Design the sequence.
């Protein structure tokens, strides 16, 4: 090759080689400093796309694990409350068996037993109303949860506690008529309220057949009223009305209405009487009302079960709660298996993402050492190439 003072090809070649080596050395140092093989998209565009997708899966599965743990917490709280209810029902059953011993218990003694049963029933209602998770009631018969237990859409586990809008209180367990005193069942017909969701709103009512106008039959029928009426979440005991001082039919009706007004928290008097019936009239659900609103405003009558039937009623309630607890236990096992699977999947996916994204430190150190040597050599050769033009000046000076 000839010698030229215009173009120093040797210097240009050495410079280009040194630039490539310096760029590679910078990339190697960045990988060692960050611990990542891919620090920007240009390092490995395809690998970056795969890696970011795997990271999204890892984050989603980690959150799904926490969601499943929340599901277990919900089920454990519900199961604990139901276990407490079972204990209460076992005590109620013992009392019902005790009250069935007519050979030694008179009506007053059974009334004492009933007083404890009423308190235990109130506690069932309290447990059902106050068992919550993060402010959400669990035992009111309306709990339906959908837990996201996967990183992708549709990976869910549904949880229903109770179902059928049947709560775990006395009403939902069919225990409102539980009374170990004399068995009473008045002839009554019930009409449910209709909500806006069902059609034109209309009020519910209960009708007790009989003459409640003409004396002396009316007064006798008023005093014979027994059982309970539930309305708008409250209960009215027909047998608790104090008719002391009542003389006329109107006196009896007023006493009954006043007691119902106070116990049910009503704004008006609900009972009306004719010679053919005594009617309890509810309020029509408002515009935009739901099925649940209609259920609350549908008055229901429950007679006295008596001691023998009380045992059967309690047995059915225990069986229902036991069945529900078994269902919740099965779902909890499903959550636990899901958590185990997710943890394994997170570990495997993290390993896959690491193989794409992480730097092999030993190999990179070896590569960086090579590049450092090439950088030193390139620098020396560039300096040498830049000095080659000096020999031409010597020729010119000769």
Sequence:
């Amino acid at each position: 090759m000839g010698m030229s003072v215009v173009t120093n090809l040797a210097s240009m070649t050495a410079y280009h080689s040194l630039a490539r080596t310096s760029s590679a050395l910078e990339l190697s140092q960045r990988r060692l400093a960050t611990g990542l093989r891919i620090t920007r998209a240009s390092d490995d565009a395809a690998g970056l796309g795969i890696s970011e997708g795997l990271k999204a899966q890892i984050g989603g599965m980690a959150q799904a694990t926490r969601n499943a743990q929340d599901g277990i917490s919900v089920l454990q709280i519900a199961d604990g409350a139901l276990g407490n209810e079972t204990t209460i029902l076992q005590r109620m059953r013992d009392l019902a068996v005790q009250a069935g011993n007519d050979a030694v218990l008179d009506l007053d003694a059974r009334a004492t037993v009933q007083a404890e049963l009423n308190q235990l029933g109130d506690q069932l209602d309290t447990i059902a109303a106050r068992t919550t998770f993060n402010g959400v009631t669990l035992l009111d018969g309306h709990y339906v949860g959908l837990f996201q237990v996967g990183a992708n859409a549709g990976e869910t586990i549904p949880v229903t506690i109770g179902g059928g809008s049947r709560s775990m209180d006395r009403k939902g367990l069919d225990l409102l008529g539980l009374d170990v005193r004399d068995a009473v069942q008045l002839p009554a017909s019930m009409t449910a309220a209709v909500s806006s969701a069902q059609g034109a709103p209309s009020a519910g009512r209960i009708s007790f057949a009989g003459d409640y106008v003409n004396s002396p039959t009316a007064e006798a029928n008023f005093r014979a009223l027994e059982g309970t009426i539930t309305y708008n979440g409250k209960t009215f005991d027909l047998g608790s009305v104090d008719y002391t001082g009542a003389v006329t039919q109107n006196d009896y009706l007023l006493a009954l209405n006043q007691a119902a007004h106070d116990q049910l928290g009503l704004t008006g008097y609900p009972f009306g009487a004719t010679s053919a019936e005594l009617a309890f009239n509810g309020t029509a659900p408002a515009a935009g009302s739901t099925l649940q609103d209609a259920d609350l405003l549908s008055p229901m009558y429950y007679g006295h079960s008596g001691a023998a039937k009380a045992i059967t009623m309690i047995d059915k309630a225990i069986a229902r709660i036991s069945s529900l607890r078994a269902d919740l236990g099965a779902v909890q096992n499903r959550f636990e298996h899901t958590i185990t699977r997710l943890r394994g999947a997170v570990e495997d996916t993290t390993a896959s993402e690491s193989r794409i994204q992480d730097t092999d430190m030993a190999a990179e150190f070896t590569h960086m050492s090579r590049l450092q040597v090439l950088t030193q050599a390139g620098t020396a050769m560039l300096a040498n190439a830049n000095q080659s033009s000096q020999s031409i000046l010597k020729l010119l000076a000769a």
User: Anything to note?
Assistant: The CA atoms of residues 48 and 357 lie 8 Å apart. The first helix runs from residue 9 to 34.
